[in-house]
Specification:
The complex is a heterotetramer, with two copies of chain A and two copies of chain B.
Chain A: E1 5-6, H1 9-13, E2 22-25, H2 35-44, E3 49-52, H3 64-68, E4 72-77, H4 84-91, E5 96-99, H5 102-113, E6 118-121, E7 135-138, E8 141-147, E9 151-162, E10 167-168, H6 177-183, E11 184-195, E12 214-217
Helix pairs in contact in A: 5-6
Chain B: H1 5-14, E1 21-24, E2 43-46, E3 50-53, E4 76-82, H2 85-93, E5 99-102, E6 106-108, E7 113-114, H3 129-135, E8 138-142, E9 154-155, E10 170-173, E11 176-181, E12 184-190, H4 196-201, E13 207-208
Parallel strand pairs in B: 1-2, 1-5, 5-8, 6-9, 8-10, 12-13
Antiparallel strand pairs in B: 2-3, 3-4, 6-7, 10-11, 11-12
Classes of the chains: A alpha/beta, B alpha/beta.
Chain lengths: 233, 210, 233, 210
């Protein structure tokens, strides 16, 4: 089972990257992002990427780094504020953008990973994002059909993982990492701590090993905070 | 005398009930948490994957893995539980959240809501707003009664792109508390010394008195 | 928050039962079934029940008890072997039965709880259970549309719960309990151990408190084993 | 000389690969677990909510909360992880399980499978079988070549209600290993001293030799 274990981001992504591919990137804002793999994707020079991620990072951290190098052709996101590079490229027509409501994006990944090609939701009915999509009535209410989403590769950040590939997230860093992991044809997980099988509580695992194709322990996570809000002690 | 922002938040907090699960939007709605009546148990959901959200941390408590949907650092409480984004929106879409309090650009008298984009300006995205207004049991809008240029935000029809159609239940502005109902926007309560005429003057929507 | 806490099964179900209602009952076989609430439903005398449960218990334990007393009008299940009472009533035309593939039943509950009125699946395409259901092609393959399922009441068995309603399951007793809990208009949870809020690890909770409307600690769980298979030490 | 049941299970086990996630059906398929080649890492899924299923427990280890999909008591392993039924079938439906080995009543030469009901007899239910055959990457059938009355089970068309249409990849019987392919059922391997003629005689399906 240790065949899943790699030394670092570069080796873990070896052979998996190609121009024009779709990457699902976990994280919410800068919280729980696969920061080492984002750097490795940048360094690989792979381009024309379609990236599904709730956000697009900030100018100099997270997915913003791949925008700076113009490796991204299209983003599928729910919110892309906090990023001037994004805004500039988008307004210049250099970057495609597909907005998905946050819950629809999460559910599309969950569905894609679960073999569900499409589902119905009330979210977005009557809004421009539902235009051109099929709608259907159930019990007198209108719903819009949304498609399951899969990607060539999911890049995921977790807290702990075992060498069999079982994974545990920490606090709100879980976010999109779990559903996106299931929707990648290949899923690579970077963890803060890699442990032996049996060390994680089998009732407490968030992502079962079957979804983890490769795993590595990242060194020196920056874990940058976007808005540091504090109260008086 | 119109309500202050604090009074508006306090008024919104009075709409909460003991045991409610509540999602607060970014901005003014976040401050409603400061006005929960003593002894009332309200559980705040953060759509990035948490129930039982606590206040901002002290300097020592700051944790990069613990943020709210506005990406601000927060704390946990004894009731806290974490989950992934699919589960978070399963809760929201599934109607398990009792109330969401959100800001708005425009509200129409049929309950249509516009709060996510202004054509011609850079669009940041809807985030979780479309899911919240579609799924949460009761949607309360907390907003200034008028736009900065003085134009009405309570309209007959929204002219900005919608976040959701027919989704708003109540609106709280500095002028009072209003409810979407038969024939238009019903005045439920007015701030001190605010008249029905003033509400009508500052709104485009049909204003209905009880 | 202790307003969710009840003394026992009878008080926890007080006011929630009525003839003709739909009940979602967690458990797989006899593993993780809400045994105290099944007894309380029996003792209440409520009848014409529609019960969604993966199985129908055995003749003298689990949901089989409600079959004996003829309180059940219809079962929605994936497998009803191991139960002679079921077979006799079904063959006599006294009991309706709707078979759902196990994964479809689980997903219908998960969808019902998540505000998804319908989804598409490959499961059952070409089989009689797909007859009369809408089908649709996605990427050249045929899928059948299945509806989200909700119930008036979900009765759930867990290992530990806190007084705020956060719940933890144990090993394979988790099964249908989690998805069914989300699909009940009201969900009542019986636990082996009720603890104070804060005692459960917030990253390790399987069912967030929002889904738990009432909770009680059951006494003297029988936890009967259906097939005791052992190996030599 | 046809294969014994143990030899059939051992042959099925040879189809497994290192790192595979596998779901074994109830009955003979369960015994395939006893024939995993040494040093091969195979992870067994039980559709009631577990990966990394272990063997039967000793008397002291028996745990009512730990059963397999056949409702038999089992044990956990260092790789074990538990999850709910929705997640379990998300794995199955989503194509994450590499192989399922199942029994059958009938298999047709186009890959149709019937293994869940006989009209006129009491129907116990399909359990997870329809999900498994629809979702798992490779479906291997392990069955007697003929029914107890001697009739063929490898057919041109199934006459029993289907579990899934065109879902079977391989069939292992006491006569050999067969693969569904162009033009019918392809012989991949024959048990010692079994002839193509014997296979043809005991099958109704079109039998193709390489």
């Amino acid at each position: 089972m240790s065949k899943k274990v790699y030394a670092d981001a570069k080796s873990a992504l070896d052979g998996l990257l190609h121009d024009g591919m779709t990457i699902l990137a976990g994280g919410f804002g800068l919280c729980g992002i696969p920061e080492h793999m984002i750097l490795a994707v940048r360094d690989s020079g792979v381009k024309d990427l379609t990236i599904a991620s709730n956000n697009a990072g900030v100018d100099d951290f997270g997915l913003g780094l791949l925008l700076q190098t113009r490796q991204v052709k299209k983003m599928i996101s729910s919110y892309v504020g906090e990023n001037k590079t994004f805004e500039a490229q988008f307004l210049a027509g250099e970057l495609e953008l597909e907005f998905n409501p946050q819950g629809t994006l999460a559910e599309r990944c969950r569905a894609g990973g679960a073999g569900i090609p499409a589902f119905y939701t009330k979210t977005g009915v009557g809004a421009i994002i539902a235009e051109g999509k099929e709608t259907k009535e159930f019990d007198g209410q209108t719903y819009v059909m949304e498609r399951g989403l899969t990607g060539d590769l999911a890049i995921i950040k977790a807290w702990k993982g075992d060498k069999a590939g079982n994974v545990v997230f920490r606090k709100t860093a879980r976010n999109f990492n779990a559903p996106m992991a299931t929707a990648g044809k290949v899923c690579v997980v970077e963890v803060e701590e890699l442990v032996e099988p049996g060390e994680l509580e089998p009732d407490g695992i968030h992502l079962p090993s079957i979804y983890t194709h490769r795993i590595f322990q990242g060194q020196d996570f920056e874990k940058r905070i976007e808005f540091r809000t504090v109260s008086e002690a | 005398m119109a309500w202050t922002r604090d009074e508006m938040c306090a008024r919104a907090a009075q709409e909460l009930e003991d045991g409610f699960y509540v999602n607060l939007g970014i901005g003014m709605p976040t401050k409603v948490a400061n006005f929960i009546p003593d002894g009332m148990d309200v559980n705040f959901q953060s759509e990035n994957g948490m129930l039982g959200m606590g206040s901002f941390p002290t300097d020592n408590e700051v944790d990069a893995d613990l943020i709210n949907a506005g990406k601000q650092t927060i704390t946990e409480t004894p009731k806290s539980v974490y989950f992934d984004s699919a589960q978070s929106f399963a809760m929201i879409r599934g109607g398990h959240i009792n109330m969401s309090i959100l800001g708005a650009l425009q509200v129409a008298e049929n309950g249509d809501l516009a709060n996510w984009m202004i054509p011609g300006k850079m669009v940041k995205g809807m985030g979780g707003a479309m899911d919240l207004v579609a799924g949460v049991k009761r949607v309360v809008i907390l907003m200034d009664h008028n736009a900065k240029d003085g134009s009405a935000k309570l309209l007959k029809e929204c002219n900005l792109p919608l976040t959701g159609a027919g989704v708003v239940d109540d609106i709280i502005t500095e002028l009072g508390l209003f409810r979407i109902g038969e024939g238009g926007v019903h005045i439920q309560e007015l701030a001190p010394d605010v008249s029905v005429d003033e509400v009508r003057e500052r709104s485009e929507a049909t204003i209905v008195t009880q």
